[in-house]
Amino acid sequence: MDRYCVFGNPIAHSKSPEIHAAYAAQTGQDMHYERRLAPLDGFAEAVRAFIAEGGKGANVTVPFKLEAVKLAQALTIRARAAGAVNTLVFSDEGIIGDNTDGAGLVADIVNNAGVPIAGKRVLLLGAGGAARGVVLPILEHRPARLVIANRTVATAEGLVEQFAALGGEGVVSACGFADIDGAYDIVINATAASLSAEVPPVAPSVFAPGALALDMMYGASPTVFLQFAARHGAQLRDGLGMLVEQAAEAFHLWRGVQPATADVLQKLRAQL
Question: Is 65 a catalytic residue?
Fold first, then answer.
């Protein structure tokens, strides 16, 4: 039986084993997926030990996504663009690092929420690792505009410099939260504000009529950001779909089979 795992610290909360077990059962794949707690100062050793035990691949979560970049002997274009790795493939050529987070977010927006990104005005709140990981996949869908807003404008401007050529003339821009101009069809919260029950300091006018508001965090009840968005007419989406879809993308990388995600997402939602 082929073995896979997810490395993190902490890791007990991870839903990945449940998601991948469901995908394996659905697609008839003979594989086992487990949680692995890696020591904060021993991530590389933990990965090498898993490979020595016959591991075929792994997911990587907090706080090891940057360290996984250094460990990988080759990076995909999207992992290089994200500056972080959440999926490792162990091949005869060595350790390949990929990042499926952005693909997962985009799949959730386009396929599950049924909202096309093409031609839309997209506002991305935050410019840290979570935001950086989704810029390339968003731009691949050709939005009319992508504005990256952040408390520290220079960080957002750094992302714009990195990705401007991919978006086309004037498509990608940066600003501070107080300087967001206009209304947006899709508003994505990639800040960590929801962890401390805070809302990024943005005006209600950022939500165009019928806008989609997505928070990368998820829980049993809507985050304060989503509650704020709901009061201003937005349709809501949390980060659970992104989690399920990034897992499907990793599963496809490892097994060459694309699993269906709707039932798995529905089941996880019922358990929150």
Answer: yes
